[in-house]
């Protein structure tokens, strides 16, 4: 039976490139893409070109109720045999705002909801359905919360939170289910800045991509390939690892703070409780 792999954030940028690489290099895989609204049908059709098995489920990652409904649908489809056993979940979807005030339907700041809580809820609701070896890979008090600086702080904080949660998954998930953090580095032109002002969006699309010619940035095609390497196990990464582009590395010293890790885990469990 082919392996199943759920991917959030495969509609554009790094995730789209990674999905294409995964299907090309693992043609028997069944890819389940998690998308917002009705875009999943077209995305699944495009990715399935060439005979690949691709299906989709709809979820608004800014709404925990929507994430919970999507996870319930996935569990039902797995139980009926409509999907093959899940070998992994790739939480690649991410968002960044120009402030830290954007609030979702659950009353939480949206960067934190999408980048941290949505992935955590997916992993927790699907963890009993991962078939070993499996790998969940999650990809959040601000000064002047109405500023772009605060929005950047919210984004970077969500990335730190993802590392804390992966450390927690590594200790709590069943044996054989690995959790790995993946850092793509600076990747211009991915759509991450779609909520920025027009000048910043123009710079990200037209000017900053030239930085990929330097060591300070990486193109999305290369980064998508590196992510596929992690998903497929080509880049060996033990559970709890931090992968920086194409190599296992040590994350920041701050990311190994056990007190903060426990505080975040407890908060994520409380905030995502039904």
In short:
With 274 residues, this protein is an alpha/beta fold. Helices cover 43% and strands 15% of the residues. Helix 3 runs parallel beside helix 4, helix 4 packs parallel to helix 5 and helix 5 (148-172) packs across helix 8 (258-271).
Name the shape in a single word: globular
Distance between the termini: 33 Å
Domain module tally: 1
Approximately how much beta-strand content do the residues carry?
A: 5-15%
Tally of helical segments: 8
CATH topology: Rossmann fold
Radius of gyration: 18 Å
Poorly predicted sequence stretches spanning 5 or more consecutive residues = none
CATH class label: Alpha Beta
Q: What is the spatial order of strands in the main beta sheet? A: 3-2-1-4-5
Number of beta-strand segments: 8
User: Could you estimate the helical fraction of the residues in percent?
Assistant: 40-55%
Can you describe this structure?
The longest helix has 25 residues, at 148-172. The chain is α/β, with parallel strands linked by helices and 274 residues long. The protein has eight helices and eight strands; from the N terminus they run βαβαβαβαβαβααββα. Helix 2 links the parallel strand 2 and strand 3 (53-58). The radius of gyration is 18 Å and the shape is globular. The strands form two sheets. It has a five-stranded parallel sheet with strand order 3-2-1-4-5, with helices on both faces. A three-stranded mixed sheet has the order 6-7-8. The chain has one domain: Rossmann fold, CATH 3.40.50. The two termini are 33 Å apart.
């Amino acid at each position: 039976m082919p392996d199943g792999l759920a991917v959030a954030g495969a509609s554009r940028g790094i995730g789209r490139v990674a999905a294409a690489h995964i299907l090309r290099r693992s043609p028997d895989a069944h890819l389940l893409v998690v998308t917002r609204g009705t875009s999943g049908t077209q995305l699944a059709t495009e990715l399935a070109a060439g005979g690949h098995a691709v299906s989709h489920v709809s979820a608004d990652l800014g709404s925990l109720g929507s994430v919970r409904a999507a996870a319930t649908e996935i569990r039902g489809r797995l139980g009926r045999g409509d999907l093959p056993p899940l070998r992994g979940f790739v939480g690649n979807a991410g968002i960044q705002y120009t402030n830290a005030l954007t609030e979702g339907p659950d009353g939480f700041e949206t960067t934190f909801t999408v980048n941290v809580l949505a992935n955590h809820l997916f992993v927790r609701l699907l963890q009993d359905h991962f078939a070993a070896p499996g790998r969940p890979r999650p990809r959040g008090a601000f000064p002047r919360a109405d500023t772009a600086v605060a929005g950047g702080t919210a984004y970077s904080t969500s990335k730190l939170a993802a590392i804390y949660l992966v450390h927690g998954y590594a200790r709590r998930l069943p044996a054989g289910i690995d959790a790995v953090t993946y850092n793509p580095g600076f990747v211009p032109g991915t759509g991450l800045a779609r909520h920025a002002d027009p000048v910043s969006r123009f710079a990200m699309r037209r000017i900053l991509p030239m930085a990929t010619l330097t060591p300070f940035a990486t193109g999305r095609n290369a980064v998508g390939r590196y992510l596929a390497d992690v998903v497929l196990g080509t880049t060996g990464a033990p559970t709890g690892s931090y992968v920086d582009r194409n190599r296992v590395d040590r994350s920041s010293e701050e990311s190994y703070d056990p007190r903060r890790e426990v505080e975040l885990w407890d908060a994520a469990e409380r905030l995502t409780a039904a």
